[in-house]
């Protein structure tokens, strides 16, 4: 019985002036449940500004056609046409609501011409309520290449509608701007998750608590890498994480001993293996610094009056030994040297040294979660996403290129603002920076956040770590550069198809508006961020688009998917500390360390909070663009094979930047 279905879909094709005779075949694919459809094929006049009905051309026997489509069903219908029709410029989809609401997701519409050619109209959008969607065919076009009034008007109206829906809002002063929505349900339907279950952070806490009760050891949770649990106290494991852990962006080559970190050669003499003084080791390029100065002055969590929580802003000196291993040789737990801020050394009592390393790992956790992860992948990708929806229509090649990477970024961030980083959220319950400290940390980090720091090769070079010969085994750098170059090559191929010269970039008012929106609104035009307000050359455009894609995919993968390996063993990455940093040597005991680490409840809250190149939604339909995508996939496959071969037999394999493990976006 068809009466149980409540939606009618009306598809209209708008034709131009070039003549075609014969029939049209409309193929539609839907991801939905039972739906009822009605097809109408209409003609229009491409010279008119409005889309007007001219003549109904479906056969009388199809007049009352009602169709029931099931999930992923594809149906094809021939419609005989007896009059001359022009080229199809637009397809309009109308959905009419009846007794019950039933949203409809349309992937694409394909029209077959009498000559046997297929014209594809990508949609990949939800048709909701009694609304209509007007589609262009899948060929990407720059704004300056649209000539007809219909095409220009459609482009303009699409952006006008999007700008009403995708509005900027300041969630906190000093933050990047975010979407104007309080909850996931308030977001535009096209960027909502199909199910919120997988991004329910509170639900994840319940699972973590259950896991805890099933295990014997207090800190052995989830699928932790056993190797980390067994070796976390070792200096090698501590140093290795600066290269290939889940926050491999903190270490930089030292060109001099910091003034506020008065380490002497005598202090670390027993650690140096080349018969050189500390100053000579610095000149030789063997000394590195991890400085957590950004943690200085951040307010510790005070939301629980029964538990005091503490933060530190340590400085750690690292040494590359003759075996090219990175080892810690000195740690100071505060930024201001003095008698109450001693420099801890490997030669000190083992518990003094262990606790000093734990404090560094705790500070690293806070910087990783709030700066490296939240700000520098999630929040900045949301800025790119909002600006994209506001300034780039679906027909723009940059929109087609970027959409798979940042489509659901806004949704995951909105959910995080609902449950994770909001007042009384999981950050407040689990982290030492909760209760406002995480907000201060983002605000402070924004003052040094630059566009160039998102460009992977530039970021590596700025820390003095670009040489594989000087610093081997830095797989984050090596694999990251491979993926960056692959993405850059792909973007270059796409840009070359649509932009013939630098002048073409300058004349593209939509890409210029996109870049300006990111800087002027998304980053609130902060002088320090140095984000470009315009692009002058194809080279600049390629770098910009590569940066957007890499940040949302590869960079996020590198600092997100190692969290369970490195952070689920709580002593290796404590989310909070319950005792103040030691101010004297020789006072630390095992009991002191246990009492410093987070308790069971906060550990569970912490655990509850915690693939590139695949384009299942094909927005590009032209053969050159499809060829570029296939070339990109092959290159990523080569990188995957190389990384797999390199990891064979390693106790600590590095696979976070293997392309087969990199999702397209941060929304995971």
TrEMBL record:
Pathway annotation from the record: Lipid metabolism
Location in the cell: Cytoplasm
Coarse class of the protein's main subcellular location: cytoplasm
Species classification: Eukaryota, Metazoa, Chordata, Craniata, Vertebrata
Signal peptide span: 1-24
Family note: Belongs to the lipoxygenase family.
Descriptive protein name: Arachidonate 5-lipoxygenase b, tandem duplicate 3
Amino acids binding Fe cation: 373, 378, 556
Residues annotated as binding Ca(2+): 44, 102-103
Keywords from the UniProt entry: Calcium, Cytoplasm, Dioxygenase, Iron, Lipid metabolism, Metal-binding, Oxidoreductase, Signal
Domain Lipoxygenase: residue ranges: 141-668
Organism: Scleropages formosus
Cofactor: Fe cation
Gene of this entry: ALOX5
């Amino acid at each position: 019985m068809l009466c149980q279905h409540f939606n009618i879909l009306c598809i209209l094709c708008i034709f131009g002036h070039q003549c075609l005779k014969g029939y049209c075949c409309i193929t539609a694919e839907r991801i939905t449940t039972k739906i009822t459809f009605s097809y109408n094929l209409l003609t229009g006049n491409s010279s008119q500004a409005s889309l007007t009905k001219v003549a109904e051309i479906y056969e009388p026997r199809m007049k009352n056609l009602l169709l029931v489509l099931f999930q992923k069903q594809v149906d094809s219908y021939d419609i005989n046409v007896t009059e001359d029709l022009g080229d199809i410029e637009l397809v309009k989809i109308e959905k009419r609501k009846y007794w019950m609401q039933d949203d409809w997701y349309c992937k694409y519409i394909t029209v077959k011409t009498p000559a046997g050619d297929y014209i594809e109209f990508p949609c990949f959008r939800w048709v909701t309520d009694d609304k209509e969607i007007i589609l262009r065919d899948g060929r990407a076009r720059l704004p300056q290449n649209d000539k007809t009034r219909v095409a220009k008007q459609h482009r303009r109206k699409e952006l006008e509608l999007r700008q009403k829906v995708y509005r900027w809002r300041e969630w906190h002063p000093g933050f990047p701007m975010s979407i104007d929505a309080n909850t996931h349900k308030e977001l535009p339907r096209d960027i909502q998750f199909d199910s919120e279950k997988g991004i329910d952070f509170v639900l994840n806490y319940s699972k973590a608590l259950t896991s805890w009760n099933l295990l014997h050891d207090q800190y052995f949770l989830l699928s932790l890498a056993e190797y980390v649990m067994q070796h976390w106290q070792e200096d090698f494991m501590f140093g290795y994480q600066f290269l290939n852990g889940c926050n491999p962006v903190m270490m930089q080559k030292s060109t001099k001993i910091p003034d506020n970190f008065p380490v002497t050669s005598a202090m670390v003499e027993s650690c140096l293996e080349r018969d050189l003084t500390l100053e000579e080791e610095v000149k030789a390029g063997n000394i590195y610094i991890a400085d957590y100065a950004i943690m200085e002055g951040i307010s510790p969590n005070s939301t629980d009056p029964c538990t005091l929580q503490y933060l530190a802003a340590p400085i750690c000196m690292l040494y590359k030994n003759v075996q090219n291993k990175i080892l810690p040789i000195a740690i100071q737990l505060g930024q201001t040297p003095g008698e109450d801020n001693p420099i801890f050394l490997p030669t000190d009592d083992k518990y003094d040294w262990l606790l000093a390393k734990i404090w560094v790992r705790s500070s690293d956790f806070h910087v990783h979660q709030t700066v490296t992860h939240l700000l520098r992948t999630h929040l900045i990708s949301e800025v790119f996403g909002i600006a994209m929806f506001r300034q780039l229509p679906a027909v723009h090649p940059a929109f087609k290129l970027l959409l798979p990477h940042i489509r659901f970024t806004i949704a995951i961030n909105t959910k995080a603002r609902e449950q994770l980083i909001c007042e009384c959220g999981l950050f407040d319950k689990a982290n030492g920076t909760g209760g406002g400290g995480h907000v201060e940390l983002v605000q402070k980090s924004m003052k040094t956040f630059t566009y160039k720091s998102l460009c992977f090769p530039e970021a590596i070079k700025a820390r003095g770590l670009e040489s594989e010969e000087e610093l081997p085994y830095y797989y984050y750098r090596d694999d990251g550069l491979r993926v960056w170059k692959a993405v850059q090559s792909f973007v270059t191929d796409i840009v070359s198809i649509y932009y013939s010269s630098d002048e073409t970039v300058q004349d593209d008012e939509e890409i210029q508006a996109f870049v300006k929106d990111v800087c002027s609104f998304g980053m609130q035009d902060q002088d320090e961020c140095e984000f470009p307000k315009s692009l002058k050359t194809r080279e600049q455009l390629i770098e910009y688009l590569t940066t957007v894609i890499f940040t949302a995919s590869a960079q996020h993968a590198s600092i997100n998917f190692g969290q369970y390996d490195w952070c689920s063993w709580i002593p290796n990455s404590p989310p909070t500390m319950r005792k103040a940093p030691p101010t004297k040597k020789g006072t630390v005991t095992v009991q002191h360390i246990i009492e410093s680490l987070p308790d069971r409840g906060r550990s569970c809250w912490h655990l509850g909070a915690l693939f590139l190149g695949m384009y299942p939604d094909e927005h590009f339909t032209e053969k050159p663009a499809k060829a570029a995508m296939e070339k990109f996939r092959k290159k990523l496959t080569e990188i995957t094979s190389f990384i797999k071969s390199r990891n064979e037999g390693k106790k600590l394999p590095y696979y976070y930047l293997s392309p087969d493990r990199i999702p397209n976006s941060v929304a995971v």
